[in-house]
Amino acid sequence: MAQMPALIPKEVEIQRLKKIWLIIIALGSIAASVEVDNFVDGSLHQTSIRDSAFTPAHWWLYSHFIALPLGWGMVAVYDRKVPILRGPNNSMNTGLKMTILGYLATMFTIGVNEMWHFWYVEEIFAVPNHWMFNMGVVVAFMGALAYVVRVYARLVELGAETPGENPYVAEMYKMALEGKLYSRSIP
Amino acid sequence: MTLPKGFGTGGGASSSDVSKMIGRRVEDMVGLITGAFVALWAGTWGGVAVACVYYPWAYPPPSAHFALTVLTIIEAIGYLFCVKVVTEGTSKAKTYNGLIAGVIAAIAIATLVTDCVFFG
């Protein structure tokens, strides 16, 4: 596996990557918890079509659309301390950029959604304002996957994680380290 | 190796420089993570309680039991991952397996008691 140049001491880099990993686990748990809220909110809307923005199912749903972009923003701020995670031209990592943009779209959609439900009360899953939530989340998940693989592959390279034994998985880590997992030009 | 301003004496990083750059080490955060997990579970309990008490028409007991139980599982998995990430591969000999088992068992019992006694 190609060795990347170390710009900070190895021990410091491992500790910093693990701190990023902790934030990601917390954010992943929040994202997973919202799957529960999909059922809670769905059952609520089957009994009372559109109640108000301020029911517990909505506190949970809307606050996660704010908590996750803020949390990924924290990752972006801390990420600057790990040189290997930089993106093209020393910018933010591409995966991280996609994640934050995706969740920012969902934050924006909170307002759009409220306006929609103010004028058109119906609360069915397939209304366009809900597409915006779903598309934002999917973009964010794709970016988060790319970023998580990058962090994990670096931890493998530094010897802090056990590399995948499956040769196909090992090849995927190698490509991620070389910036070739998704594209040859986007690190 | 280029170090940030204020670190090193021109001859590379010393061990005290490395410690300064690291700050609080992740393997010393187990207490913090455990406290955060317990506080998070208590917050979840409170949120479910508020939903049941103030919106009983929308959140009947089965919804409350479902939400609390599944959320407890998600939070416990997150707690387990966090402790494992911070302790594995470090020089610290402790694994904290006993602590993890004890804390998760206590929370599981509290969840079951809640499902049986509270929230309808």
Q: Key terms for this structure?
A:
heterodimer; A: 187 residues; mainly alpha; 5 helices; 69% helix; elongated; B: 120 residues; oxidoreductase (chain A); NH3_CH4_mOase_C_sf (chain A); transmembrane helix (chain A); monooxygenase activity (chain A); transmembrane (chain A)
Helix content of chain B: 55-70%
Fraction of residues in helix of chain A: 55-70%
Report the C-alpha radius of gyration of chain B, rounded.
21 Å
Structural class of chain A: mainly alpha
H/E series of chain A: HHHHH
Number of strands of chain A: 0
Number of domains of chain B: 1
Describe the overall structure:
The complex is a heterodimer of chains A (187) and B (120). Chain A is mainly alpha-helical. Chain A is 69% helix and 0% strand. Chain A has helices spanning 10-47, 56-79, 94-119, 128-157, 167-177. The radius of gyration of chain A is 19 Å and the shape is elongated. In chain B, helix 3 (61-87) packs antiparallel against helix 4 (97-117). Chain B is 68% helix and 0% strand. Chains A and B meet through helix 1 and helix 2 of A and helix 1, helix 2 and helix 3 of B. Chain A: This is Ammonia monooxygenase/methane monooxygenase, subunit C. Chain A: InterPro entries: NH3_CH4_mOase_C (IPR006980), NH3_CH4_mOase_C_sf (IPR023349).
